[in-house]
Specification:
single chain; alpha/beta; Spore Coat Polysaccharide Biosynthesis Protein SpsA, Chain A; nine-stranded mixed beta sheet; two-stranded antiparallel ribbon; 47% helix; globular; TPR-like_helical_dom_sf; TPR_rpt; Nucleotide-diphossugar_trans; Glycosyltransferase family 2 protein
Length: 357
């Protein structure tokens, strides 16, 4: 059986590290913890799991810290996680099965990242990441923020999910790193410009963020999935200030990069519904119900826009148009996808009072 090193970089993670290591500690053969300056009980928690702990002076470079953690690994494969990640019971079983059947021809194993959830705990955003790599390939991390592994070779896409249990937000940390780099004269590449724009939005610096995103889009060098997200974020900002024309412009711009997506169609539907242009709202929501979810798992997909959400909104639209039967039917369809949603359950009660079964 091949061996696995877990490599992590941490700082002040006492609230989450125990949960992470409890879920994965028995699955790996060694735990490498690289601490970048904790002042809490992070190291004490790591010691309980017999981790090998190394200190690394923080230099505002996540890739450098991760590469250092990889350099300390001694196993055949390296698994990386963040401190607020866990494996749930079903995924622990899948991981054990994978470990027993690792193929030496495989250079990297990708896994799903369950990143965002609704108030019921349902996954609404997930995507793939290369999670476990062959140590002898000496893969390197790149990017001082929003780092990535440059994987070349044979990749196996597993159905294992890593679940993100966020407790703390990064706050201004990342945006400060970007601004310092720019101040030092560092020239951001296309990928870095995109993530800089995201950080500006996350820190509510919207006007500057729009300028950065537009520069990124105008350069036309980015990954199509990032292009689409940039457009969606700009659209959401304009919809938020009720500038529906500008918001729609950026929804339509997503069509330049791929076929229409459920996310853009639902945004367009919502914009027209908010302006009481119900027929137009129906058009976009109906289109969303007919779309296939993109086949690639590497992009950022909002699962709801391909399942219950457009049907719930069509329930509203058709009721406003006076077509109660269609309204009822769309709520029924929405319920098949998500029978725990409070709005859907409220509608079910409402329709029962109208005599529907």
């Amino acid at each position: 059986m091949y061996t696995i090193s877990l490599c992590m970089i941490v700082k002040n993670e006492e609230d989450v590290l125990g949960n992470c290591l409890s879920s994965v500690g028995n699955l790996v053969d060694e735990i490498i913890i690289v601490d970048t300056g904790s002042t809490d009980k992070t190291k004490e928690i790591a010691k309980k799991f017999k981790a090998k702990i190394y200190d690394f002076k923080w230099i505002n470079d996540f890739a450098a810290a991760r590469n250092y953690s990889f350099s300390k690994a001694t196993s055949d494969y390296i698994l990386w996680l963040d401190a607020d990640d866990v494996l749930l019971e079903e995924d622990i079983k899948k991981f054990k099965k994978l470990k027993r059947s690792i193929d030496k021809k495989i250079d990297a194993y990708s896994m799903f990242y369950n990143y965002a959830f609704d108030d019921k705990g349902n996954v609404i955003l997930r995507f793939r990441r290369n999670r476990m790599v062959k140590r002898k390939r000496k893969y390197k991390w790149h990017g001082f923020v929003h780092e990535y592994i440059d994987v070349k070779g044979k990749v196996s896409n597993t159905d294992i999910c890593i679940t993100h249990k966020r407790v703390h937000n990064a706050g201004p940390r990342n945006i400060n790193i970007y601004k310092q780099k720019i101040k030092e004269g560092y020239e951001l590449n296309s990928r870095e410009i995109y993530y800089y724009g995201k950080e500006l939005f996350d820190n509510k610096m919207y006007e500057e963020g729009i300028k950065v995103f537009n520069k990124y889009l105008e350069d036309n060098k980015g990954w199509k999935e990032d292009n689409i997200v940039a457009c969606e974020k700009i659209a959401d900002y304009y919809f938020g200030i009720k500038n529906y024309g500008e918001g729609r412009k950026y929804c339509f711009k997503t069509f330049e990069y791929d076929l229409p997506r459920g996310e853009a169609c639902c945004r367009l539907g919502s914009s027209y519904l908010n302006q009481n242009e119900i027929e137009k709202a129906v058009f976009w929501y109906e289109l969303a119900t007919k779309l296939e979810k993109p086949s690639s798992d590497w992009g950022f997909i909002n699962e709801n826009t391909y399942t219950w959400l457009p049907h719930l909104q069509l329930c509203v639209c058709y009721y406003k148009l006076g077509d109660t039967d269609k309204s009822y039917e769309h709520n029924r369809i929405a319920s098949r996808y998500n029978n725990n949603n409070e709005s859907i359950k409220y509608n079910e009660k409402f329709f029962r009072e109208l005599g529907y079964k």
